[in-house]
Design a protein that fits this description.
Elements lengths: L1 E2 L17 H18 L11 H13 L2 H4 L17 H14 L3 H25 L13 H19 L4 H4 L5 H23 L2 H15 L8 H11 L17 E2 L4 H11 L1 H18 L16 H16 L4 H4 L4 H27 L4 H15 L22 H13 L10 H52 L7 E4 L4 E2 L2 E2 L5 H4 L12 E4 L8 H10 L4 E6 L4 E4 L14 E2 L11 E10 L5 E10 L7 E9 L11 E5 L5 E7 L4 H4 L3 E8 L5 E10 L7 E4 L10 E4 L5 E7 L8 E7 L17 E7 L3 E7 L7 E10 L5 E2 L6 E5 L2
Parallel strand pairs: 3-6, 3-7, 18-25
Antiparallel strand pairs: 1-2, 4-5, 7-8, 9-16, 10-15, 11-14, 11-16, 12-13, 12-15, 17-19, 19-22, 20-21, 20-23, 23-24, 23-25
Helix pairs in contact: 1-5, 1-6, 1-18, 2-4, 4-5, 5-6, 5-8, 6-17, 6-18, 8-9, 9-12, 10-11, 10-12, 10-16, 15-17, 16-17, 17-18
């Protein structure tokens, strides 16, 4: 059995063959290909959250205490999302001092870190312990295969299509930098074992500390070192071909002895981790932190498992659906070839492990590394079809790349004999397959980076237009922006960006009363604020045009408050047969005053399922010319044969209410569900959801924000459900800290509800105090009407935002 005890020096005979000129040329080509693949994103532009950092940096340079405060408080002074990442702020400050507001310098820093990671991966794989190196030194076969494996793994990592979010997005450097320090720590740890020079061990300690100061992901490093020691010391029942050398030796130990021995060798790393946890607790006031300050709380097990499986699939087959299209021939061809290559690698790798059992340790260690890398993100592991969220697997893609390349690099070892001619053919085949998977990876990476380039150019165009508008506008009037793109094919544009975009020096002067209205912006309570937006005399609504890259003024109708009767018939809808889609042409239906659309229908044939079914509504209007699943409004229908009233709340939908006049409606109905629609009508808002109001001195425009702090510790809400026939009481729902309700105006219970308090009256007041909340953070709150049986009726009211301070 193998053991790494004690670390000691090795002689030249035990080393891998020296790095020759050809290896350096190949490594240089890999780095050059990586730079070319990312050259499109090296322009002077920023994305999304980058503007938050720019705003902070401009103030931090003037007040250096803001920089050092990151070491003893929450990152960027954001108490509502408690992260401890002070070293990232130092990297940001360094770039800002060197490059000021030029985004090119920031992007270059990200790319340099990525290139360093690529080189470290190459060296780490070369330094993995080897059993048969001495035995095969005469032929150099094993050494040559190890070089191929190391170089190809580094190349695949460098060109992996999942990485633009971590490399091309400046804020994504959090994952790039933590990976750099983690790899540096492991590399130095391994160098210490080989060289027995304490400078390497000290550098390993420092690198791990820097990694912990960069992102929480680094907490897995002590476990990774322990895993390494255990894997390379336990007895894996090696074959008779296994021989010992000066790097490793055969020993007979139980797995528990190996484990305890590994813990003793890595004890100092565990002590560093314990010290980090204590410092983090003192700085953040919690051991966990993050967005919701919970470790294992998940909204739904079924959704959680589904997201995990989906994310694993995208990690292995990293295709961006929004770039290549859902059904494009190119995507299908690339996906088939990619999957075939993965299968070929798995088959070849399995065969190689059977023929050379000493390689099992490498594969076992890499699998353990991959699993450890997913543990800190297990709650957040949710990669979208456009690869949003992919930065979280940046560190995990290190062992993944090595595992994928292992089978191709060791393809010649799958022979049962030593036929040199077949070994040469298999070697050429392996290199050809590696070249193919690297080429496909580079192609997808370049396509993804073009999306990030477009997103960056779009964000710069938005900033330019904002500067033009405020140069021509006096003061700081309320301004509402609609139509701003959240992302382009997964590349962020304006998400979380407006607060930074509207500050100097991004524009000529800083403004405060500029708000973005979009259905993807959950932090703005649009449903509650829309009446205030209309009633404010000097407010301005600007609509963004992606084609022209300019803002156009949007004018709301004057007769918004025209009272409507309970039922107003619009079109006549014929009986729906067995079709799953019903399209209705609607003329002269104004979107703004239409709060609720209601179907009076009769269920003729319930679906096969005994559960309630979901019917969705899509629409087109003057603004949204085409139907889109991203703008569908869903509602629940009882799966029973009966007459029913089905309502679709449109009140809080930005794309609907600001879209002028409706053109068409499309209803998506389950295929095995059959109903007859008798009427399609408009319903007043007050008849189907609770009405809520409040006054708050910190909110002049009544936009649905409440601030509870030491200066304003309480607030009073006023509610009214007297227009809802079934309602007899109300229930106040409050979300978990720093999370948002799953669905606005929903009929069903929400998984993110943390506080639910009932009030036995139809009209009255509710007092809120900051001590009623579990801690500081941002909360959403809304009312839900209850009938006499305390069962929810109608829809949940419009949510408001509550910020609870210290």
């Amino acid at each position: 059995m193998l053991a790494l005890t004690p670390p000691r020096s090795i002689n030249a005979r035990d080393k891998l063959k020296g790095i020759d000129v050809n290896t350096l040329i190949v490594l240089a080509l890999i780095l050059a290909a990586t730079i070319y693949s990312y050259h499109a994103v090296l322009g002077n532009f920023f994305h999304g959250d980058d503007f938050v950092h720019l705003s902070w940096l401009s103030e931090a340079i003037k007040n250096p205490d803001m920089i050092w405060r990151n070491f003893y408080s929450a990152w960027l002074d954001i108490s509502t999302a408690r992260f401890y990442r002070p070293l990232i702020s130092l990297f940001m400050v360094s770039d800002y001092l060197l490059w000021h507001g030029n985004g090119t310098g920031f992007h270059v820093t990200n790319l340099v870190c990525h290139l360093i990671n690529t080189i470290l991966i190459w060296r780490i794989i070369l330094d993995l312990p080897g059993i048969s190196l001495v035995q095969s030194e005469a032929t150099g076969a094993n050494s040559h295969q190890r070089q191929i494996w190391a170089l190809s793994s580094a190349a695949l990592f460098a060109l992996y299509p999942l990485h633009p979010e971590a490399v091309s997005w400046i804020t994504g450097r959090v994952d790039t930098i933590v990976t750099m320090f983690c790899l540096a720590s492991f590399f130095c740890f391994r160098r210490w074992q080989l060289k027995r020079r304490h400078a390497w061990l000290i550098t390993s300690f420092l690198s791990m500390i820097f990694a912990l100061l960069s992102k929480e992901m680094a907490v897995v490093m002590p476990a990774l070192f322990t895993l390494f020691e255990v894997i390379y010391s336990i007895n894996l029942r090696s074959s008779n071909n296994d021989v010992s050398n000066n790097d490793v030796k055969i020993a007979s130990k139980s797995i528990w002895r190996c484990f305890y021995s590994a813990l003793s060798k890595t004890a100092l790393f565990w002590l560093i981790l314990a010290g980090y946890i204590i410092v983090r607790r003192l700085a953040l006031g919690t051991f966990i932190g993050g967005y919701d300050d919970s470790l294992f709380a998940i909204p739904s097990k079924s959704v959680f498992i589904k997201n995990w499986l989906h994310s694993v699939g995208l990690t292995l087959v990293p295709m961006n659906k929004n770039i290549f299209g859902a059904h494009s021939l190119l995507k299908i061809a690339l996906k088939i070839v990619w999957i075939a290559l993965l299968i070929a690698s798995a088959i070849s790798g399995t065969r190689a492990l059977r023929m050379q059992s000493e390689q099992r340790r490498h594969v076992l260690f890499l699998f353990g590394w991959l699993i450890l890398s997913l543990l800190p993100i297990f709650k957040l592991f949710n990669i979208a079809d456009d690869l949003q969220g992919s930065r979280l697997v940046y560190f995990g893609s290190v062992p993944l790349s090595a595992l994928i390349c292992f089978g191709f690099a060791y393809l010649p070892t799958t022979l049962t004999n030593n036929d040199s001619r077949w070994q040469l053919k298999l070697k050429i085949t392996g290199i050809t397959l590696l070249s193919l998977i690297l080429s496909i990876s580079a192609l997808m990476l370049i396509a993804n980076n073009l999306a990030w380039q477009q997103a960056g150019e779009m964000s710069q165009a938005v900033v330019k237009e904002l500067d033009r508008f405020y140069n021509a506008t006096a003061g700081d009037p309320p301004v509402y922006l609609v139509g701003l793109p959240d992302n382009i094919a997964g590349a962020y544009v304006c998400r979380n960006a407006l607060a930074g975009m509207t500050k100097a020096p991004q524009i000529s002067r800083s403004v405060k009363n500029c708000f973005m209205l979009t259905n993807s912006e959950h932090s703005f309570p649009y449903g509650f604020a829309r009446e205030s937006i209309h009633d404010t005399a000097n407010s301005t609504i600007l609509r963004w045009s992606n084609e022209e890259k300019v803002f156009r003024a949007l004018h709301l109708p004057a007769n918004v408050k025209n009272e409507k009767p309970s039922w107003v018939q619009i079109p006549t809808v014929e009986t729906l047969g067995g079709n799953s889609i019903l399209t209705v042409n609607v003329k002269n239906l104004p979107c703004w005053p239409t709060d609720i659309l209601t179907l009076k229908c009769e269920v003729l044939s319930p679906g096969l399922s005994k559960k309630d079914v979901v019917i969705s509504l899509m629409y087109t209007n003057d603004w949204q010319k085409n139907f889109s699943l991203s703008r569908r409004i869903a509602t629940t229908v009882h799966n029973t044969r009966s007459e029913q009233i089905i309502s679709f709340p449109l009140h809080g939908d930005v794309d609907w209410s600001l879209g002028g006049f409706c053109h068409q409606l499309k209803f998506l109905i389950p295929k095995d569900y059959r109903l007859k629609i008798n009427n399609l009508e408009v319903t007043p808002l007050s008849s189907i959801m609770p009405l809520l109001s409040f006054s708050n001195t910190a909110n002049e425009n009544k936009l649905g924000y409440i601030e509870l702090n030491q200066e304003h510790p309480s607030c009073q809400l006023s509610f009214d459900v007297t227009h809802m026939q079934q309602a007899s009481s109300v229930c106040l729902e409050i979300s978990k800290p720093n999370t948002f309700f799953d669905t606005a105006n929903s009929q069903t219970p929400d998984s993110h509800v943390a506080i639910s308090q009932q009030y036995p009256c139809r009209q009255g007041h509710i007092g809120l105090h900051r001590h009623d909340f579990p801690g500081s953070g941002i909360y959403q709150a809304r009312l839900r009407a209850l009938d006499q049986k305390k069962t929810p009726c109608g829809f949940a009211g419009d949510q408001i935002m509550i910020t609870v301070g210290q």
